[in-house]
Write a structure and sequence with these properties.
A 4-stranded antiparallel sheet has the order 3-2-1-28, with no helix packed on it. The N and C termini lie close together (about 10 Å). A hairpin with a 7-residue loop joins β20 (about 205-210) and β21 (about 220-225). Helices cover about 0% and strands about 50% of the residues. It has about 300 residues and is an all-beta fold. It has one domain: YVTN repeat-like/Quinoprotein amine dehydrogenase (Methylamine Dehydrogenase, Chain H, 7 Propeller), CATH 2.130.10.10.
């Protein structure tokens, strides 16, 4: 598992709960990370992407100057990365460092309505994929998708809250899409054509993070709170694909002061789940039923990325 703090990326061996995370690389800004079964990638600022493979690190130098806000490994061989930025654009990065803008994304219907409540530019907050299907979470502007590997893009106009904070897919459920939003969790069984509002059991609805067990597409963790600034962040678990949720508090605080943020939940290792709250990394050995403190970082943890 990769751990990103404000200016560092660390590698954590999730098979050994007693091992302290190993620093991999420093960054000029908060790193943006992603990980597959055999590859790790981290945007570290200054146009650089650090690639980890087989215990060796390499560095791709690109000419991308925009602020990168999301990163996705689309292919390991040949290496292809997808980077989302602020303002909201998408770029494909290949193993030789070549950067190609996805021009069709810049022409997607409705992008002139994207923006933030504070007046700043929208960004691509999160990326997900399944085969040639690509999904980009626009903060704030809903979800846009491509069914042809990025050649064309369309907005998802179904009844889902437009303030989406994280989207995920699962390899065993090719048409399913999970989203956590400012109005709780939404789940689609048809790649976003329609959605069910999966909030039964959630005491509050301002959602941030969501994660799905690698083995079972029905086992989920999600975080909700009273709002972006009101806090009282809570952790919830579902074993029926979001049809119902149960508040998790065995070994984990009933609520925290702020929010459990986007990308701070992960499943990694047999029956293991992870959640980061400020500097504290919590571990579960029963898929999120109960928790213990695994590690205290020197700086706030901003994101987790686990092997798929």
């Amino acid at each position: 598992m990769l751990i990103a703090t404000d200016q560092q990326v660390l590698l954590f061996n999730t098979k050994d709960s007693d091992v302290v995370p190993t620093p991999l690389v420093s960054a000029d800004t908060t790193p943006i990370i992603d990980m597959t079964a055999s590859l790790a990638a981290a945007w570290v600022g200054g146009g650089d992407v650090v690639i980890g493979r087989g215990g060796e690190l390499g560095r791709l130098q690109t000419d991308l100057e925009e602020k990168v806000t999301s990163l996705r490994i689309l292919s390991e061989e040949p290496l292809v990365l997808l980077a989302g930025t602020e303002p909201a654009h998408l770029y494909q990065i290949t193993g030789d460092g070549l950067v190609e803008p996805l021009e069709a994304f810049d022409q997607v219907e409705g992008r002139d309505t994207w923006g933030t409540p504070w007046g700043g530019p929208a960004c691509v907050r999160c990326l997900a994929d399944h085969g040639k299907w690509l999904y980009a979470d626009i903060h704030v502007g809903g979800i846009v998708r491509s069914g042809d590997g990025g050649e064309s893009w369309t907005p998802i106009n179904a009844e889902i809250h437009q303030d989406v904070h994280q989207i995920v897919t699962h390899p065993s459920a090719p048409e399913r899409l999970y989203a956590n939003t400012a109005d709780g969790v939404f789940i689609s069984e048809d790649r976003g054509d329609s959605w069910r509002h999966a909030v039964d059991g959630l005491a509050t609805r301002y959602g941030r993070a969501i994660a799905v067990d690698h083995e079972d597409a029905n086992v989920l963790l999600a975080s909700v709170s009273l709002g972006p600034h009101q806090g009282e962040g809570r952790l919830y678990r579902s074993t029926d694909a979001g049809a119902s949720w149960r508040h998790v508090s065995r070994g984990f605080p009933p609520y925290i002061e702020g929010n459990i943020d986007t990308a701070c939940l992960a499943f990694a290792g047999v029956d293991r789940a992870w959640v980061a709250v400020e500097r504290t990394l919590y571990r579960s050995d029963d898929l999120g039923e109960s928790w213990t403190v695994a590690w205290e970082a020197e700086a706030p943890i901003r994101a987790l990325a686990a092997r798929t």
